[in-house]
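## retry 2 of 3
previous attempt timed out at serialization; input unchanged, resubmitting
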Amino acid sequence: MTQKTFDKALLVIDIQENLVNPGSKIHIDTTNIDQFFKNVNHTIDLFENSGLPVLYITNEWSNFLMNWITGNVCKKGGKGVGPDPRLKRVNMELYRKSTKSAFVNQQLLKVLRGWKVSEIFVVGLFAEHCVKATVTDALKKDFNVTVITDALGSKNGKKLRRSLEYYRRNGVTLVPADLINSDKTRMTA
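## retry succeeded, writing output
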């Protein structure tokens, strides 16, 4: 049996119900939340329609102190910790982590390496924390990285701008969702 290979994959990082809920202790700036979900779901659609993998990552903590301080926003097994219902799901696989970088989950890296992925596209939360740590680790692991600039959530605009500047300085390709194209076989930025 032949193993499937893909040159690109999309990582959807921490778009969890509690983290987009303005009533929770830790959440993104929800000023443009509808446009954020439109951009994220558009990107997911492009990957799905191109036959490229979409991998969902969630942050789940079992550390009592961390959960207590944050009001259980990412408590493992807690209410609202799963993917937000507005997020398009093309599969039910979840790669769980308990620190900022998605690459702490060794299964995620194993899957990407097994598929021979060389470039990852990234959408998700928080641009200044988990997305930044994942992008940094991806670069260290020799992936080419493209960040979808208008499919990122952040605590505020200033933190988002600083994160985008960090990505730019570190050689990450930055592109808005509407400039990603699909010709059914290949994603281009």
